[in-house]
Amino acid sequence: MPLAGFCWLRRALPLVWLLLGAMPAGGPKPLLLLPAPLGIQAATFSVVDVRDDRADRTAVAWLLPAPARPGAPAGPPLATDLQGGAAGALRQFARQSLPRTAGQRPIVIRIKELRVQETAAPGSQAEGRVSVRLAFEWQRPDGPPLLLTEYRGGARYGRPLASPAVVEPTLRQALADALRYLNGWLTQAADHDVRLATAVQPTFRYDQRQTEPDTLFHDPARPLRWTDFTGRPRPGEYAATVFPGFAYRGQPRVVRGVVQLGLTLQVFVVRSSSWVGPGQQTPYNLNHEQRHFDIVRLVAERFRRKATADSLTVEDYNSILQLQYLKSFTEMNRLQDQYDLETRHGLDAATQDRWNRRIDAELRGYGVIQ
Predict the structure, then answer these.
(1) For 208-241, what is each residue's pLDDT tens digit?
(2) Helix (H) or strand (E) holding 275
(3) How crowded is residue 248: how many other Cβ atoms within 10 Å of its Cβ?
(4) Buried b (16+ CB within 10 A) or exposed e, 106-137
(5) Other CB atoms closer than 10 Å to residue 208's CB: what's the count?
(6) What is the DSSP secondary structure assignment for residue 70, as one 8-state letter?
(7) Which of 59, 175, 206, 222 is the most exposed place for a label (fewest CB within 10 A)?
């Protein structure tokens, strides 16, 4: 099941020129970031925290000051922070701008870049560039935060050196675009991104193809035949040997936020590893070997019933299945040894009959046979 990579949003950088009131003498004041209408009817997330990961947290904006007199050159940019600091201002901005709806996914915003940089332009003008880079993490109820996506955006503006009023609205718009982007990304990803799934629903089927030359899959309608024992007979005390096993393979897909886990169970016999000695091809001996095959089917049925929606989690369903499979494989080996020990490899006819009835009853209970 592959993980989706980062999603990037690259926005055009519009040039905005506004002529507004004057910058106060004595340098710029902290920028008060106001809430913005986002046009989101129902948010898919809520912001539970904002963390500032910038290497330089001195300020958010470097703004050119108003000239000392008309026509005088601009001085060097002055560091100007957001009121309350970058993390605090963005936290308040998100909470005031987003609609309050129930069932939202808790999101942690990490500020990777948030900067307004101005340079001097002819005609006592300042050109400003807003750069925004935010990472969005899902604060999962169980487990560490999960990085979902990143946003990169920004804007450009122009203003007279005497008027800084355009700075905050431009920055506000860039941050509003980031929140709208995240809402849209979550809306689209929730239905198909396995990281956002909320539950796992396993379904099972048995592989009963009989098209492979060396593999026979368990099918009650197609029991073992002596022609399935194609291996070379080996000297010793046994009349015959069958080589059964079981495996599973899965194909997950996300449907409306739920991992639909289609599992195919394969209960099989390897023909080339199974053999029968000369003169031992009797119905009684074949039944003994068939019961080895049936025991594997019983173990697969038990494995199937352990792998329930309640036992699997979105984060660890694969490792949980593997552990359950290993336990079932150990159980299969134990039952095979117990079966051969108690029947003395089929020599004890009375015990063999009891195992026959026991296996049939359990297969019938699982609906494998009528």
Answers:
(1) 999 999 999 999 999 999 999 999 999 888 999 9
(2) strand 275-276
(3) 20
(4) ebbbbbbebbbebebbeebbbbbebebbbbbb
(5) 14
(6) T
(7) 222
Report pTM: 0.67
Nearest to 299 by CA among 261, 342, 262, 248: 248
Extract the tokens encoding 29.
């004041």
Residues forming beta bridges with residue 154, ordered by sequence position: 131
Q: Which residues pair with 246 in a beta bridge?
A: 267
**Following DSSP, what letter does each residue of 147-165 receive, concatenated?**
EEEEEEEEEEEEEETT--T
Q: Kindly tell me the burial class for residue 52, based on how many C-beta atoms sit within 10 Å of its own C-beta (0-12, 13-18, 19 or more).
A: middle
23-35 residues labelled b (16+ CB within 10 A) or e (exposed) = beeeebeebebee
Instruction: Give the DSSP letter of residue 58.
Output: S
Taking the CB of residue 287, how many other CB atoms lie within 10 A of it?
Answer: 16
Task: Characterize 311-336 residue by residue with b for buried, 16 or more Cβ atoms within 10 angstroms of its Cβ, and e for exposed.
Answer: ebebbebeebbeebbeebbeebeebb
